[in-house]
Fold this sequence. Notes:
The chain is an all-alpha fold. It has helices at residues 12-20, 23-42, 47-60, 65-74. It has two domains: 9-42, no CATH class; 45-75, no CATH class. It is built from four helices and no strands. The model has no long low-confidence stretch (mean pLDDT 86).
Amino acid sequence: MTTATITLQVDADLAQAYRSAPPSDQSKLNLLLNLSLRALFNRSITLTALMDDLSDNAQMRGLTPEKLEAMLNAC
């Protein structure tokens, strides 16, 4: 399989954590991200439907708009 490089924007803390990780951990993260993106793009559902599913699952697990706002404000 050939590979190509893409650029993803992430928050600065995440970027620093990745850069500080040992090469073996970076490789594992690259593989995990590759598999996750492949699964996302191979789905036959739309992005909107996927986001709705994620929202429904989060609500079923107790995530409220207030908790989400608090989490976002903590960043």
